[in-house]
């Protein structure tokens, strides 16, 4: 399952849904960490509610992965050695999403004309009006002539530097658009929800903080600024090494705990788990169960370490 949903960074940027991009980035990051991937495998195999809900999500994401692999092949210059194409795709995606005001996955002529930061880049002639510049860009980018510019068409237009050299400064356009968006949002105050129960987002953040505290309590904190390396004295590592087999219940929970500690230090994994926790209530319930089980494991390991 993980292999089928593991996409290249370039392919992920071709996904229109921001939430789905978060999920696919998390899958790729988890696949690159053997212990995180192992933890997911154990949870999927041992908890039926997680397995059922996971299969439903997997079915939806599989079709997305199949479609986006086809789109990736349509994007110009996605294979390079220095990573410049991947960086351009990521920056282009951010700019594209800012221009796509209704989040439809496509930019129409009106949205294009209402984006002053992009218009400043595509104006060839100072005497051209925004309408003329928008028409010229639509003619260049809208390859299938449906009146809407898809992300793939947008990126390919950027790649046509001989026809549209100003778009080589897409970073500048993104910076300007982000600054404008930030100014607009600064005047809007975020309202907290009413009621005593914490929101799913608040509960997830609390669990993440607790996971990082477990890391400290178990002696599994990072050695230095390199958060990919955990200390050799980690209680979880020692316990796993001492056990003759890790296939019993305690051993499998320890493996899940180990993967959780590593995953908590991996931003794409954290963001994907947060998205799942907030958007899929069956998986949120499963996450709460796993968190409680791991809490008991931590308490037992800390008590045992104190006795020794």
Short account of what is shown:
The protein is mainly α and 308 residues long. The protein contains 15 helices and two strands.
Account of the 3D structure:
The structure is a single chain. With 308 residues, this protein is mainly α. 66% of the residues lie in helices and 2% in strands. It has helices at residues 9-13, 18-31, 34-46, 48-72, 84-99, 109-113, 116-122, 130-141, 151-159, 170-186, 200-217, 235-242, 249-263, 267-279, 281-307, and strands at residues 106-108, 148-150. Strands 1-2 form a two-stranded antiparallel sheet. It starts with 8 loop residues before the first helix and ends with a helix.
| SS class | mainly alpha
Tally of contiguous helical segments: 15
| Sheet with the most strands, sense and barrel status | 2 strands, antiparallel
Overall mean pLDDT: 79
Q: What Rg do the Cα atoms give? A: 24 Å
State the share of residues found in helices, binned by percent: 55-70%
How far the N terminus sits from the C terminus, by CA atoms, comes to 41 Å
Order of helices and strands: HHHHHEHHHEHHHHHHH
Shape: elongated
Poorly predicted regions: 162-168, 186-191, 224-232
DSSP strand content: under 5%
Number of strands: 2
Strand ordering within the main sheet: 1-2
């Amino acid at each position: 399952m993980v292999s089928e949903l593991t996409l290249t960074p370039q392919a992920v940027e071709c996904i229109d849904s921001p939430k789905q991009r978060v999920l696919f980035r998390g899958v790729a990051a988890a696949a690159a960490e053997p212990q995180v991937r192992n933890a997911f495998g154990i949870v999927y195999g041992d908890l039926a509610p997680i397995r059922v809900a996971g299969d439903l999500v997997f079915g939806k994401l599989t079709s997305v992965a199949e479609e986006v692999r086809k789109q990736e092949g349509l994007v110009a210059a996605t294979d390079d050695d220095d990573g410049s194409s991947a960086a351009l795709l990521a920056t282009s995606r951010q700019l594209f999403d800012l221009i796509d005001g209704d989040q439809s996955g496509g930019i129409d002529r009106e949205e294009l004309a209402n984006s002053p930061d992009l218009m400043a880049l595509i104006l060839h002639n100072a005497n051209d009006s925004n309408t003329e510049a928008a028409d010229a860009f639509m003619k260049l980018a809208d390859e299938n002539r449906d009146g809407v510019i898809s992300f793939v068409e947008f990126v390919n237009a950027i790649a046509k530097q001989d026809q549209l050299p100003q778009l080589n400064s897409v970073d500048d356009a993104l910076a300007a658009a982000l600054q404008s968006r930030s100014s607009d949002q600064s005047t809007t105050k975020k309202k907290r929800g009413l009621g005593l129960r914490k929101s799913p987002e608040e509960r997830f953040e609390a669990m993440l903080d607790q996971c990082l505290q477990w890391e400290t309590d178990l002696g599994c904190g990072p050695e230095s600024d390199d958060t990919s390396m955990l200390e050799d004295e980690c209680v979880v590592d020692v316990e796993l090494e001492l056990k003759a087999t890790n296939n019993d219940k305690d051993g499998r929970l320890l493996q899940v705990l180990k993967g959780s500690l590593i995953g908590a230090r991996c931003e794409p994994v954290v963001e994907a788990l947060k998205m799942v926790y907030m958007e899929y209530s069956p998986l949120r319930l499963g996450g709460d169960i796993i968190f409680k089980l791991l809490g008991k494991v931590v308490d037992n390991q800390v008590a045992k370490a104190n006795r020794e």
